[in-house]
Amino acid sequence: MADTFTSLHYHVVFSTKGREPWLRLDMQERVWAYLGGIARQNQLRPLLIGGTEDHIHVLLGIPPTVAVSEALKRIKGGSSGWIKQNIRGCRGFGWQDGYGAFTVSKSQDAQVKAYISKQRQHHRKENFQEEYRALLDRHEIQYDEQGRPGGASVAGATRRLRAADSVG
Q1: In which order are the strands placed within the sheet that holds 9-15?
Q2: 3-state SS of 39-99?
Q3: What is the model's pLDDT at position 9?
Q4: Has residue 147 got a pLDDT over 90?
Q5: How many domains does the chain have?
Q6: Is 2 inside any structural domain?
């Protein structure tokens, strides 16, 4: 068969630098729309973007010719400058260095979309660190419990995720 067909969807999670609450409720839709525009501009398929004041979730289709790390570099790099310049009160804004990227089968798209769309309700019961650890555990990703007070070191986990992404 000469043709190649793929369906490569990822549930991507990343936070603001230091998990500071930069992404106020009044600006979120504007930021999500901009992130979606950057994704489409780079031949990525943003299926859903959502989050809270300190982190976002993206269900993202990525073509096989683009590494996950490159896709996230384009989205995060293209948006941080725009946010600083265009959103009042965000001159010091930045994204964390790392990210979590988890594969999603087509049969699970609806479940992940529901999860992303209910972030505000979800975080009434569980903070970002607990949520992130649960995602890492669910995907059997090793991480250490050192680094940040009261939780897992997401820096170590995201380094491992980036390293795994560059191999595959």
Answers
A1: 45-51, 55-61, 9-15, 100-104
A2: HHHCCCEEEEEEECCCEEEEEEECCCCCCHHHHHHHHHHHHHHHHHHHCCCCCCCCECCCC
A3: 97
A4: no
A5: 1
A6: no
Among residues 107, 162, 102, 98, which one has the least CA distance to residue 137?
102
* CA 22 from centre of chain: 15
CA 161 to chain centre: 12
The predicted-structure confidence for 4-41, as pLDDT tens digits, reads as follows: 889 999 999 999 999 999 999 999 999 999 999 999 99
pTM of the shown model = 0.80
The distance of Cα 16 from the centroid of its chain, to the nearest Å, equals 10
Q: Is residue 27 part of a domain?
A: yes
Mean confidence (pLDDT) of the chain: 85
Q: Give the residue among 46, 63, 59 at the shortest CA–CA distance from 8.
A: 63
CATH number, position 63: 3.30.70.1290
Cβ(16)–Cβ(84) below 8 Å = no
Cα→Cα distances 21→28, 87, 101, Å: 11, 14, 22
> Domain limits at 123?
9-167
Q: Is residue 1 part of a domain?
A: no
Q: What is the pLDDT of residues 36-57, one digit of tens each?
A: 999 999 999 999 999 999 999 9
Of 11, 19, 17, the C-alpha closest to 127 is 19
